[in-house]
Amino acid sequence: MDSSNPIGLFDSGVGGLTVMSEVVKALPNEHILYLGDTAHLPYGNKSPSAIIRFAIENANFLMRQKIKLLIISCHTACAHAIDILQTLLPIPVLGVRDPGFCDLLQATRTKRVAVLATASTIASGTFQTLLQAEKLHVYPIACPLFVPFVEEGLQNHAAAKLIAEYYLSSLKGTGIDVALLACTHYPLLSTVIQEVLGTEVRLIEPAHSTAQMAAQLLKERNLLNPSTSSPIYRFFASDDPEKFRRLAKIFFPFPIEKVELV
Amino acid sequence: MDSSNPIGLFDSGVGGLTVMSEVVKALPNEHILYLGDTAHLPYGNKSPSAIIRFAIENANFLMRQKIKLLIISCHTACAHAIDILQTLLPIPVLGVRDPGFCDLLQATRTKRVAVLATASTIASGTFQTLLQAEKLHVYPIACPLFVPFVEEGLQNHAAAKLIAEYYLSSLKGTGIDVALLACTHYPLLSTVIQEVLGTEVRLIEPAHSTAQMAAQLLKERNLLNPSTSSPIYRFFASDDPEKFRRLAKIFFPFPIEKVELV
């Protein structure tokens, strides 16, 4: 494996760019490819078999670009496909699931936690299984309207607050002290979610710890890029690259000059 | 062409079943195939080229089942692909666009009308072009959150009213007397939309007139099914047939026993 090869990330759309921006900070010498599978978004209300198919197609596309590490930057894709991709691919595969799980374990004192995610992630039971094995009491909440609100830029609209109250009111009185935002769109709603849950509940999102885990893995396997010349970032979308570029600004603090259609 | 062949309908999901239920009433002897392209839904925020590709794939699938008439039961697909499918296919192709346009023309007195639709339908400019050619003043409004609200069964939630006010407040004082619900999901929000627009604005949705136009076309071309034995209805979905069957109940008043995966 050539350590100068790029890291590959994919998500159904722009949400995973929050992970990429942390990877850029943690690994400033690495070339990075990002694929947004916008032709199939959102993943959150699709079936496991469809998500697995999309994930394999995305991984195959990135493998053809000779990536050295894959980071699945979408919780729904992780929930259904990380084990499959770890088995299929000849390169290391990380996802946002395990860092999220580790962060949650470390942060809780009451051992009562909430997981907020898409309908498909919640239905997969992946976080419930992991957390119950650690004797945590888990409150899984599917929040299907959160992604469309963020995609429409209406995360601060009064209706978003009403919807957050609708989804999260059952958490009152449960004694949770941590809530995992297990969808890369949800951090953009964190003000609203925090208002509804109260300041005693800590919100966690795993973009930062995913990037830390990626850095550690590359170091351990001697795969850090030895070059310190300017890294190359390339962005791909399976539909409407211009819309991707426009929406990307919400999630990614660096300029994106070009998005390529795949 | 065999007049005992079925009619084919497609939509991105279950919304087009409102059209199918009107076709069932208008043409009770006809066999009908319905395809929901749930692997790619929603269409409303995808690019024209993606929607054209999906529409051609859907039409090809239905053509292989030997349909005698295609009814595009999705406004977004109509907006981008009806002309292409009418050119490509050797059978008659109808869509919800033209009946909607005709209904609007007949209903308005003030010659000021609103068209409420997905972002992609509005961006296509299809209704604006048709209506401006008739000297109507058109107010096109994209309402991207309406479909997710309906899909989540939250069309009567207080947040839906707030979102309707957000999208439609610019119509106040414009003198419109008719609003076309140019998305098959929107009739489920008609109570909320009517509250916001006021009772002086008439809401129009073209499912009924699309079915009437289909009946007239089959009659004119001698394509009515001569048999009066029980017609066969078959339902197909490109993802998660069980979810399709569950959601279909909101849109279709008859029982659906089986949905086949394509």
Provide a descriptive summary of the structure in words.
- The structure is a homodimer of 262-residue chains.
- The model of chain A has no long low-confidence stretch (mean pLDDT 96).
- In chain A, helix 1 (17-26) crosses helix 10 (207-220).
- Helix content of chain A is 44%, strand content 17%.
- The first copy, chain A, has helices spanning 17-26, 48-64, 75-88, 97-107, 119-124, 126-132, 146-151, 158-168, 190-197, 207-220, 241-251, and strands spanning 7-11, 32-36, 69-72, 93-95, 112-117, 137-142, 178-181, 202-204, 233-237, 259-261.
- Chain A folds into two domains: 7-95 and 207-261, 3-Layer(aba) Sandwich (Rossmann fold); 98-204, Rossmann fold, CATH 3.40.50.
- Chain A is of the alpha/beta class.
- In chain A, the strands form two sheets. A six-stranded parallel beta sheet of chain A has the order 4-3-1-2-9-10, with helices on both faces. In chain A, strands 6-5-7-8 form a four-stranded parallel beta sheet.
Summary tags:
262 residues; alpha/beta; Rossmann fold; 2 domains; six-stranded parallel beta sheet; four-stranded parallel beta sheet; 11 helices; 10 strands; 44% helix; 17% strand
